[in-house]
Amino acid sequence: MHRTHTCGELRLSDLGKSVTLSGWVQKSRDLGGMTFIDVRDRYGVTQLAFNTDDDEQLRIGARELGREFVIKVHGQVIERSSKNPKIPTGDIEIKVTSLDVLNASKLPPFTIEDETDGGEDLRMKFRYLDLRRNPVRENLILRHKMAQEVRKYLDEQHFIEVETPVLIKSTPEGARDFVVPSRMNAGEFYALPQSPQTFKQLLMVSGFDRYFQIVKCFRDEDLRADRQPEFTQIDCEMSFVEQEDILNMFEGLARHLLKTIKGVDLGSVPRMTYADAMRLYGSDKPDIRFGMQFVELNKLTKGVGFPVFEQAELVVGINVQGAAHYTRKQLDALTDYVKRPQVGASGLVYARYNEDGTLKSSVDKFYSEEHLKSWASAFEATPGDLFLIMAGPQDKVRKQLNELRLEVGNQLGLRDKNKFAPLWVLDFPLLEWDEETGRYHAMHHPFTSPKPEDIPLLDSNPGEVRANAYDFVLNGSEIGGGSIRIHDKDLQALMFKHLGFSPEEAQKQFGFLMEAFTFGAPPHGGLAFGFDRMASIFAGLDTIRDVIAFPKNNSGRDVMIDAPSTIDQAQLKELSLVLNQKTPS
Ligand code: ASP
Asked: Phi/psi of residue 209, each to 5°?
């Protein structure tokens, strides 16, 4: 028998028991007459005591154990003389009577401790060792628990988990597809799903009524800290629903998860239109853990000859409450922040509302105290506040001020990881103009239904058409998104036309879906949550990599297994991928 107990299990109540434990050597200490070893497994750490007087051989064996050796020990549970209140097994130790080395270990390339000395690259190369560390393991356990609670909630709500295929045909959802050559169909390719979108809609046509799947999706995009080429969605679809039904159902899911996993009561989830989100926060995923809503100042800033404001389409600012004490140096640093190429602003105007009631700005040459007072009342400010103001073309300046707002929020500690502020963003535009291709793209995807009252605008003013589409935002991250779908063949065909598909192209790519719509498609809609991102927010982490067991790096590589990799000529040939058969000279 390898063990009677785990390494996290024994307590004072087990005193005197004869036990067997197996695990990894965490560390050893040699103290003259005694050798102590900490043995570790997934469940915890237990101290082992080896005493020279009892058995010299045993102690020599113990002294030879290196870190991460796999051992099995037998012995008796005794009370520790110096207790360790920091760990649950800290009151006891095992007086070892026999020791087996089950497997030796090379010295690990970094320490297997909560705070390790290993850099990111090394930890990724030896990810299986990194996964031995408590914080990394705990993230995966959290993720596991969340997945169980998702299934529990959705099952109780009569959702059915259905697996959809991974080798499919490409669905245009804005990103590039990963493709897989088909050996049996020379010259043809499968695509890996960017999401199971069309399949879940077909399941609605099949009458499944409520579907979900915790599913891997694949997008060949340039990577950022919070993106992976393969990621997991909680993908859902419902029939005979309107937007309101969906919002309620998935607010329920978020509420259930926060309650069961974090012990947090979500309360009701506020809602905001896309237009308001852009106007008040300059972002379609506002972090509403803190205020600092945008205040537009066009009327109060024009006509005095300050050229920057005079020429600007939009003058807009935020009131940073209680920040009038910001020093010149801090304000210069904020100015530098917005001037960085990533933000791209030309500058920043500020005004302090001093504690004594006076107002001072960086543009005093142009604006009198009277002007500044009118700004203060627009900001609903009180003495001690600081105004930060930017100007420029509307869309650009809003984005820039959003960056500034988030940065100031960080600086002031307003983005507390233990606070959860959800938000529904509604009424997204249906179409988005793409400068590069010079045409409209579906902002969500081509299956999203326009708001019926906006359909007439499709011809005259496509950019103004709103969609029945919604995003679930948590702490400034978009963690879910979906829409009510088109379920009418003609409307779907019209959408494809507006997206620049010829009827033949639409038929070729989506004929199967439009045909399905002719066989009694129910009204339906759904959404998908980004499970990795959701888990990383629950874990209080900045990157989704830390909640993925075997993630890829920023170049899309798995440095542990060394993928992607080349394949040999024979394989290429079999896949009909050898275009040039000439042998190298
Ligand atoms: N398929 C969509 C996505 O991956 C989600 C949805 O509309 O349900 O973003």
From this structure: 70, -50
| 428 and 411 co-located in one domain | no
Indicate the top mutation candidate among 197, 232, 529 to test ligand 1's pocket, ranked by most ligand atoms within 8 A of CB.
Answer: 197
Could you read off the pLDDT of 4-42 as tens digits, one per residue? Answer: 999 999 999 999 999 999 999 999 998 877 899 999 999
71 and 114 Cβ atoms separated by less than 8 Å:
no
Say how far apart CA 168 and CA 180 lie, in whole Å: 9
- Please name which of 576, 578, 585 lies closest in space to residue 185, comparing C-alpha atoms: 576
* % of residues, the chain, pLDDT over 90: 89
Whether residue 482 has its Cβ less than 6 Å from ligand 1: yes
The mean pLDDT value for 398-408 works out to 98
User: Can you tell me the mean pLDDT for 159-181?
Assistant: 89
Closest atom, ligand 1, to C-alpha of 482:
7
Asked if 280 and 294 touch (Cβ cutoff 8 Å), the reply is yes
Q: What's the pLDDT at 438?
A: 85
CB of residue 481 inside a 6 A radius of ligand 1: yes
Beta carbons within 8 Å of 178's beta carbon, 6+ residues apart: 191, 192, 218, 219, 220, 229
* 181 Cα–ligand 1 center, Å: 25
Q: Flag whether pLDDT at 276 surpasses 90.
A: yes
Residue type, 252: G
Q: In sequence order, which residues have a C-beta less than 8 Å from that of residue 47 and are 6 or more positions away?
A: 36, 37, 38, 80, 84, 89, 92, 93, 94
Q: How far is the CA of 199 from the centre of ligand 1 (A)?
A: 11
CA distances (Å), origin 148, targets 143, 152, 264, 426, 474 = 9, 6, 18, 29, 21
Q: Are residues 312 and 365 in the same domain?
A: yes
How confident is the model at residue 61, as a pLDDT? 87
Going by alpha carbons, the residue nearest to atom 4 of ligand 1 is 195
Q: Is the CB of 528 under 6 A from ligand 1?
A: yes
pLDDT of residue 54: 67
Q: Are residues 406 and 433 in the same domain?
A: no
pLDDT category of residue 584 using cuts at 50, 70 and 90: low
Which pLDDT band, with edges at 50, 70 and 90, does 81 fall under? very high
Look up the domain containing 86 and give its range: 12-103
The number of folded domains in the chain is 3
